[in-house]
Write a structure and sequence with these properties.
By secondary structure, this protein is an alpha+beta fold. The protein is 39% helix and 28% strand. α1 packs antiparallel against α2. The longest helix has 21 residues. The protein is globular, with a radius of gyration of 13 Å. The relative contact order is 0.27.
């Protein structure tokens, strides 16, 4: 299962996310849930770093991507993070056995 956990700052805005795991919906290379999540997460991360030119802390390895923004950067990235939250939540409603979205501290 893929677990996406969003963290929120003191002002209530999203400050980052961690997405980990594999959907297990189909064999590797054929899993549409994994592909949809990966595409959305990388689009959000790339937009934050390459378009907005923010410098979050990012950890990336097989089955894991974590992005954490500093307090001074969270406001600029809100629309992107909210869009990712909405997209992953919609996927979790469509594929509840394969993806879970959580709100963290």
């Amino acid at each position: 299962m893929i677990v996406a956990k969003f963290c929120f700052g003191e002002n209530g805005g999203a400050a980052g996310f961690t997405v980990r795991g594999h959907a297990g919906n189909a064999p590797a290379g054929e899993d549409i849930v994994c592909a949809a999540v990966s595409s959305a997460v990388y689009m959000a991360a790339n937009t934050i770093t390459e378009v907005l030119r923010l410098t979050p802390s990012i950890t990336e390895r097989e089955g894991l991507l974590t992005l954490c923004l500093g307090a001074e950067q969270t406001e600029a990235a809100q629309v992107i993070l909210q869009g990712l939250w909405l997209h992953l939540t919609a996927l979790s409603e469509q594929y509840p056995d394969f993806i879970q979205v959580e709100r963290g501290a």
